[in-house]
Structures are given as C-alpha cells and as structure tokens.
C-alpha cells in the first residue's frame, strides 16, 4: 500500500508518500481499498500540531471504496460492498487500509465514491449541528460562517429545505455568490463588510438565535454580538486559530448566551447514532435535496499541494485525493 504519513508536526512539507505493508484484517476489522479519500480542515489541525497526535502517523479521517476482506466476527459488511466512512483511526490518505468494520456505512449505489469520500464527515457534521446541537425550526434565521466551504455548502442547502433563512459569511464576492447558489438567503463578504452590523441590519436589530462557527479566533467575539438574548454559539472549528481564553461573564453580559464546542465523533460514537446520522444524510443526497459536487481533485501524491491550497483558502466546497 501507499500512504501519506508524517513524522513531525508542522507545515504541509512534513507530509510524505510512503510504501507500507498491509496485513490481513484482524478481528472486528475490514480491509477497504480506497477509490477516493476526503480532505478536511481537521487534517490541517492534526498535521500542524494544533491537535496533538502520536507520531509517526497517517492522516485523514474520511474515505470511500470497496471492502476487500473482513476479519473474524465481522457481519456488518462483506467483501465487495461499497462503503464510506468518517472517523478514526487516522489513515484515510492511503490506497488501502484496515479499520474497525463498525465504523463503515454502506454507500448507496446512487452515490459515487468521490461523493461518499467528500460528504461523510462534512454531511454528518451538518446533520448533528442543525438537527441535534441546535434543532432549527422553520422560520428561524441563522448565521453560518464559512458558508462556501465544504460544510457550509451542505448546510446552506439542508437549511433551505427546512425553511430556515441562512445568513452566510465568506471571504470574497465569488464565494458569497456560491453560497447563495446553494441556498444562503444572504451572504456577507467579511473582508469588505462588518458582519455584526450586517446581521443586525438584516434581522432588524434582533440578532439570530444561533451562530454556527468553524472559523474560531477571528470571528468568535464578534459572533457573540450577533446573537439574540439566550442565543447559542456553536463553535465547531478553528480554521483561523484557537479561541483565546475569555471571561465567561461575557456570556451573561451579552444576553445569557449558551456556548458549546461539539465534535462529530461524540455524536456518532455508537453504531445506532452512526447509522441514524448517515441514513438521514444519504436520504437528503439521494433525494436531491442536497447536492454533493467535488470542486477539487488531487492525486494522493499531491497531498502537500492540497494542504497548501486549503490553508490559503483557495478551495471551495469538497475536495478529494484520488489514490
């Protein structure tokens, strides 16, 4: 097998394409040959050192392919099954790998491997954010940062089907237009506009009941000012860097606000939750309510360039590595 690995944390240049031996799957494991591997911003956090991981390490949490073999006791999947997954252990940037069979989801025939590899982590993230962390209601108005990113484009479409008004943010007029094409009602170019003032203007001064924020340091405090009293700040990422320590008294001063820092992996920790979350996502995509389009494709060997592009905010929507 070939796999992208890193022996020290740092910039994209620490990533290396290596030849490795792959063993037969052990008890409870399945061997998957990847047809596509997902790229996500969490990969940057793990590579850079923002999230610590044991070294040396593989990279990647999302992939899609075909089961080649299964270990003892595995009944959920069988050789020949089309599958997709999102979650640990790290190692999705590879041609083939063994992983726990209970983390695999059967990929519907109507979906391509590229769609499967680019939608599992992002799509299930959207599902838990808007259906469980803050269950949105028809008529709600929400603020969704990074609306032209992989999670954002899925969220805009899904929220539109639920009758929710989406105020998105993005870093250029072109990205704002992309978010609107995917269902955002409004999109604020945060490089040229003050998003707090615009949110207050759009909502008639009331603010929004919830902010979904994967940007982190650059948007956190201002996002609190966009919330209505007793609103919820959902901070689920750190694309601009970690949020500095702050006085929680601010939550009271700004309107008895709620703050949560959720993670997909806690929302799909059980097999029951994983199946329910993925099933709802698959239904939305197969039914045409959410469209998954891969915007960037890179060869597995070009993972360094893929990371450079992600960090430079040059990508939109979904990206995949092709083994």
TrEMBL record:
Its EC number is 1.6.5.5. It is an enzyme of class 1 (oxidoreductase). The keyword Iron-sulfur does not apply. SMART domains: PKS_ER. One of its GO terms (cellular component) is cytosol. Pfam families: ADH_N, ADH_zinc_N. Keywords: NADP, Oxidoreductase. Residues 10-321 form the Enoyl reductase (ER) domain. It comes from the Bacteria. One of its GO terms (molecular function) is quinone reductase (NADPH) activity. This is NADPH2:quinone reductase. It comes from Novimethylophilus kurashikiensis.
